[in-house]
């Protein structure tokens, strides 16, 4: 399975062109919440954020900081209380569902695969935004589905049923479905949760490849800060519904940030292989220890 | 693994961005049939189509059996001739006036129940969530009985059944938290609603004279005896509109089997879709109840047979309707002939056959 | 090659599939927090009990005074005092008094049967009527009728055997599958069993050419026209049930804490469970033989009892006695008054009173566990 040794360091890939242009997907004073009137909880409060094109953006933060809610808002799954999500400069709420689905593909954290669905069928669902009631299949659909399965490295299992596959295989099948949507943007909610280390690496490398080779914009919610540091080009650190740091991992991840996010102490060293920040010596902060003792 | 090399070459990019990629000549994916006429291109799963064909054949056979068997036995040729008014007067009378209308009513109700069940199951993501279980049948029955015995027959049973079904649906879903509700909990809320309406039906039957109540009894358990022609016509209209509509919604239904987030991500208007499916299911159930009473088990058994025969490919709407019609015709035939001269209401036959099946699903399924 | 590589990771798929389960099914999981909260809010038994008994007595009086016939409450009151017309005295003493007595016994039996069943199934929704126990009893009676067993005393034993079979079946489903984790699933299984048995009962009675009215009695239940002799036939089994219940109370209270705890306290959970099921069958079978299948009393009454004075079965059972009488007789009195001179089936009224309780229980954010 070894991929050829070429590494895509963020610096090499950065063509600098994206920096000057306005990002395709951004939020403007976005406020998201749930619940009804009295018990209304604001999860995201007045968030303005741009997601750089053609890069892997990782959203990190402690549990309940609003990462997944933000992702749902970006994908138009959740109506904003105020503010807006702008896709190519237009408010996403004013776009047609199908137009959004042609630009943004989403991979939710919880996927439920109905009985009897094979990989090929699943990936075919990704073509739906491009199809109509009377144009249900075309040559292009077929080539895109095949290419998506090849890209996600799941083609050899195309006629297997999802329910009979391992978690890693299933996750790749879902990613293939998202790819078949042919969208410039790909949103992933904890794409590696419930995967073992080998599968995690597989999925992350696939994600990196998609951004750097296929020039897709990828936004993912990641639980594990270490993986985010290793694989993301752009890091968005969230705490209590606000962004507290944003930028390339090597620049924004500091012991102070880690303390603020997770309440733990650590040291950071550059990864000898990739130059990305590496967390070592993680332990609870002193305040936390004394706080819990009282 | 030579094919794994592909993803690093830029072929994916080009295949995706240029419509005329020279990858290969297009063909139908495995297990499907693909038709093209000019700009129109349809892709259909093969297994459900075959299942539908098989079920159609079985339905025709059982229809013939239903026309020939009975207290006055006819042979096949006589029965076929009698349909077109040829042959002995008695034969023509039995077939044209008694058996054929009953057969058509049975097919219509079975198809409507099963189609409604299939829609509701897909909507709720639960194979137990049929209109009968969540109380819609009982609601429709209660209102229809009210129109027959309670309030005088001034209002047409189909209209009353529809309003009853809508009320029950609103209660069942409203009490358990919205249209998208999943899980078992709302089923039990529905059982409670159904029990309430069932009690209401009994309450109305107790008010009227014993003769009327005795006449209405088979109808409350579900029977093809008490149908009136008007209701059958309304059922026919509902099916003529409902079946194509359901098939048109079929692609969306397929996507709805995933989670809401996935379906929304694929550009499906999930909320609108759910509402349409719910209404369609309720209208079909009400139309069927107005004809045959609460034979809710068809809505469980029909789609189950269809799903099994079509190997769980897609949402087998057409096959469900056909399977429902087949089951209903067979159950009515069994009720008429097995204990002859006694006639067992089709609802009781279906409950005897369907309930063990329901139990089996409950005790077996891992989810 | 690819496939070989994936095999060792199959456990991952099991993990992810379990996490992908619809979250609502996980909600009813046991959580002791509401129970502990309730402890503070509940009332002492000695405060509630006199009030409940007083209300029960009032409903008994109402049951004697009001009826579907000509004799109005004032005439009936006079008859009770030893005055009044011959007709009124006949109606009160010969018709309403036995009926009230039967109602009292049936109400107590159904309420206690429900409370016991809920403890043993550890499920607040386990109700003999909903779960098909009553339906099993009436099906057994219907079969006995078909076979020509008309002896009066036999009905009770036949009904109890039917109830026992229904009970055993439903309780075995609890053990078979995840019904233990998902209380709602048991109700669905019970509803399926119930609808099967009701259909079979109707079928048997149809074959036997019974009138629709009698079919309705064994499908819906009623107190009308039952004689005291039927009650006498129930007494031996009722006595047995009372003795067994007194013996069961302590071990059952321990069983609520969990099987292992109960064994640790020196009880034998399996034995306790079996005897409880027997008691439930005795109670519900006898009640069904007396009044037909009457649903929802065994759900609503223990629910109210628990809400008033906590989940301890020893308190619940005591409170179930007056509350059961109250609910059953209230339903019966209403059934006589709604459409005079005819009567409504009793089961219809108890359903109208009890089904909202079922909906309320299910709607509760967390199902209270027992």
From TrEMBL, chain A:
Keywords: ATP-binding, Cell membrane, Ion transport, Iron, Iron transport, Membrane, Nucleotide-binding, Transport. SMART domains: AAA. CDD domains: ABC_Iron-Siderophores_B12_Hemin (cd03214). GO terms for molecular function: ATP binding; ATP hydrolysis activity. It is a peripheral membrane protein. Residues 25-265 form the ABC transporter domain. The keyword Zinc does not apply. Its main location: membrane. GO terms for biological process: iron ion transport. PROSITE patterns: ABC_TRANSPORTER_1, ABC_TRANSPORTER_2. Gene3D superfamilies: P-loop containing nucleotide triphosphate hydrolases. It is found in: Cell membrane. GO terms for cellular component: plasma membrane. Belongs to the ABC transporter superfamily. This is ABC transporter ATP-binding protein.
